[in-house]
């Protein structure tokens, strides 16, 4: 009879333990599957430029006598290597942003400067497409954070607006303050984004039009980076868009109440 008692007492404990274990396992399996997906996606995305670079190097060797052909292949080689560089940079940036608390040494950031820096870095590609970037508005209060990351986020939005817009159109960058938040909007007259894809474009490597994204030098990681920069700042990114009418992306970032107070918001008294 001793055995029976033991069975009765062990069974519930074991069941509970198994349930706990099962919960942990689901979490671990979920995390592993997200990581595996990312690795699979990264490998797939890297294969294209790496393969092209190999083939182009062979083509150059084979065309050694033909100067025009060499020049043509070399130009394409250059383009593929630029694409590979951009991809590797974005993968590294995104991996860093996915870690906890990247903005540990934040400070008061003047968003007016962030806007002029992000816009300046897109002036050349915009001019070469005859696109006018028009900036409007100013903020009076700073936000807490990392200026370089905020520039990266806004630069990505302006870069997308310029890349996806037809020649000779206008890109507007506006800023306003509302309820303790600074809102920076980037508006374009591009193709717009279908409503059922507006959530998905923030996922890694999700593109509405893959050929167009690649052709214009997109890595498919830009908006994912923007989303992570915003969550590191306690802010968010949103999109309004209508196919055929253009898109507006908005960054909302909490402002510092007292410009002299550069302590992390929510960490008062520490
Ligand atoms: P990509 O490098 O492909 O541009 P992103 O993460 O920046 O990657 O954007 C994801 C996708 O969202 C793009 O491939 C494109 O289809 C769509 N998209 C982003 N910004 C715009 C925009 N301003 N106008 C139209 N489509 C856009």
Strand-helix topology:
Elements: H1 2-62, H2 67-97, E1 107-109, H3 111-120, H4 123-128, E2 132-136, E3 143-145, H5 147-164, E4 170-178, E5 181-188, H6 210-215, H7 222-232, E6 236-242, E7 246-254
Parallel strand pairs: 2-4
Antiparallel strand pairs: 1-3, 4-5, 5-7, 6-7
The structure holds adenosine-5'-diphosphate (ADP).
What descriptive keywords fit this protein?
single chain, 270 residues, alpha+beta, 5-stranded mixed beta sheet, 16% strand, disordered N terminus, disordered C terminus, binds adenosine-5'-diphosphate
- SS content category: alpha+beta
Largest sheet entry: 5 strands, mixed
Count, helices: 7
> Over all CA atoms, what is the radius of gyration?
24 Å
Poorly predicted residue ranges:
1-12, 265-270
Unique ligands: adenosine-5'-diphosphate
Q: Give the SSE string.
A: HHEHHEEHEEHHEE
Mean pLDDT level: 87
User: How big a fraction of the residues is strand?
Assistant: 15-25%
Q: In what order do the strands lie side by side in the largest sheet?
A: 2-4-5-7-6
User: How far from one another are the termini?
Assistant: 61 Å
Biased composition (Polar residues): 241-253
GO cellular component, one term: plasma membrane
Keywords: ATP-binding, Cell membrane, Kinase, Membrane, Nucleotide-binding, Phosphoprotein, Transferase, Transmembrane, Transmembrane helix, Two-component regulatory system
Domain Histidine kinase: 41-257
């Amino acid at each position: 009879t001793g055995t029976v008692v033991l069975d009765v007492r062990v069974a519930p404990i074991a069941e509970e333990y198994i349930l706990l274990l099962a919960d942990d396992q689901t979490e671990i399996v979920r995390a592993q599957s997200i990581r595996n997906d990312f690795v699979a996606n990264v490998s797939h995305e890297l294969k294209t430029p790496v393969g092209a670079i190999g083939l182009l190097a062979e083509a150059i060797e084979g065309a050694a006598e033909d100067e025009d052909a060499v020049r043509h292949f070399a130009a394409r080689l250059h383009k593929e290597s630029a694409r590979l560089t951009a991809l590797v940079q974005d993968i590294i940036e995104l991996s860093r942003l996915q870690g906890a608390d990247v903005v540990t040494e934040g400070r008061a950031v003047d968003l007016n400067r962030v806007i002029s820096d992000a816009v300046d870095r897109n002036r050349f590609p915009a001019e070469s497409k005859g696109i006018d970037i028009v900036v409007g508005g100013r903020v009076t209060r700073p936000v807490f954070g990392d200026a370089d990351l905020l520039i990266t986020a806004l630069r990505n939005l302006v870069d997308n607006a310029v890349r996806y817009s037809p020649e000779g159109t206008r890109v507007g960058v506006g800023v306003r303050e509302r309820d303790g938040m600074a809102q920076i909007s980037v508006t374009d007259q591009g193709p717009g984004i279908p409503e059922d894809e507006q959530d998905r474009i923030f996922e890694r490597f999700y593109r509405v039009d893959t050929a167009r994204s690649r052709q214009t030098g997109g890595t498919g990681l830009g908006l994912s980076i923007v989303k992570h920069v915003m969550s590191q700042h306690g802010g968010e990114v949103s999109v309004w868009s209508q196919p055929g009418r253009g898109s507006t992306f908005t960054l909302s970032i909490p402002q510092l109440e007292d410009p002299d107070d550069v302590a992390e918001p929510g960490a008062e008294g520490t």
